[in-house]
Structure formats: structure tokens, C-alpha cells
Specification:
mainly alpha, 2 domains, 70% helix
Amino acid sequence: MNVGDIFIALFLQPLINLLVAIYLMLHNLGLPGAFGWAIALFTLLVRLSVWPAMHGQLRSAKIIAELKPQVDALKKKHTDRQSLALAQSQLYKQHGVNPAAGCLPALIQLPLFWGLYQAILHLLPSPSANLGWVNSLFYFPFLHLDNLPEPSFFGLNLGVSPGSQGFNLIAIPLFTALLAFAQAKMSLPKPVKVYKTDTPKEAKEKETMEESLGAIQGQMVFLMPMMMAYFAYQFPLGLAIYLNVYTILGIIQQHKVSGWGSLEDIIASIKKKLQ
């Protein structure tokens, strides 16, 4: 068994079975654009399945951000890496934080994304479509398809990429980038404010923290949206549904755990302009 066979058995086969089961249920109900809705519902199920792990990851990230002043103090106290690592580990353990918690959702995203891409290529009408091969992957006979699913969803062909349509569909990857930007901003803590009542030491610590956060923001807030926009532009529209629904659900969960984060100032500014 080669790597391709392992990927099919572990990811693609269960993915296609679940996706087609959802599609057939919606199609039999007479829902227009059933395949597009099936992708959205599939994404919802994926997100809910990793919700507990993501909750732990978001909670840990929030506490780690709050512990940064204490971590900075430890860095000044411990000169060698080994003692610093031990002190940090004890600090995190004391506050019930595991920095490695919640890694599973991130690890499975790439194979899930690639598996869904392969499913769309083979299920929707295209040169790569192979109904016979898809039917051979089903666990149960009632899932077998006589025809390929209808690719239309609100008038858009889910099997084509925005990049192949020039600028006609550019709004979709831009929307994907906007959602990713919002989530990236929310994942960062609120900007550190220096008050007149702060002592010189407190002001310096806040400025140092703001500088380190600024470096992180420059990497996260712009790199991730650019990557997501590229995927939404180059890959079939069906994958944009997955990316957007997954990110929207991520924003909802992020807000429940830690609020708007550094997005709060932007929201306040928008509200002020609308008043």
C-alpha cells in the first residue's frame, strides 16, 4: 500500500461517503443547489467535531497572552534556556495551560482540504470527473450515484475556480481574505495602552509587549488572509464555501472564548462612523 492508497483510505473515502450522504439527503428533499449546501453542512460537521479541541487551543492562547508579562520576567531571571524552559513549563502548568493542546485541528486541515478538492474534481462535471471510481469508494450501495451532482449554486459553477474566470468572481476570494483577516485580528490580544498613571517601569514593559505583538501581527494578520485568498482564487468555488463557512464558525468560537481581541478597536471605529 503506497501513500496515495493510505490517503484515500484515511481521508478521501470517508470524506466522499459523508459528503455524498449529505448531498443525497438534501437532493431528495428537492433543495436547489444541494451540492453547495452539502459542502456547507459537511464543513459545519467538521468544525463541530474539532470544537472541543479548538476551544482548548483558544483558551490556552488567551491565557498564554495574559501570562506574557510573567514570561518576560522569567526571561530576565533565567539566563540559560534549560532553566527558562522549565520555569515556563511550571508557570503554564500552574495555570492549567498546555501550549501543544489543540494541535489536531490544524494538522488535519491540509489533508481535509486536499481530500475535498479531489472529491469536487471527481464528483462535479469536469475532465477529471470519474463517476465509476467515486462509486467504488462508497461503503454502502444506497450511496451509489447514477449521475454527477448538479454543480450550480446560486448561479455559480462550484467546479470552476475564480482564477479561471478573470475578475468576474474576484469578490469571492476577497471575501475569504476579509474573513481570515477578521479571525487573525481576533486571535491577537487587545492593543496595550500606556496610561499617564503608569510608572516608567510599567510603561516600558507595555511598550516592549506592544513591539513584540506588532511583530506577530505583521506575520499573522496579513500572511494568512493572503494565503486563504490565493486558495479561494485558484481552487474550485466549492472549496471557497468550505473555507468561508469554516472561518465564520471559527470567528463565532473565537468570540465566545476571548471576545473581539484586537479587532475591537476596528469595530468601535466602524460603529462610531455609522452613528
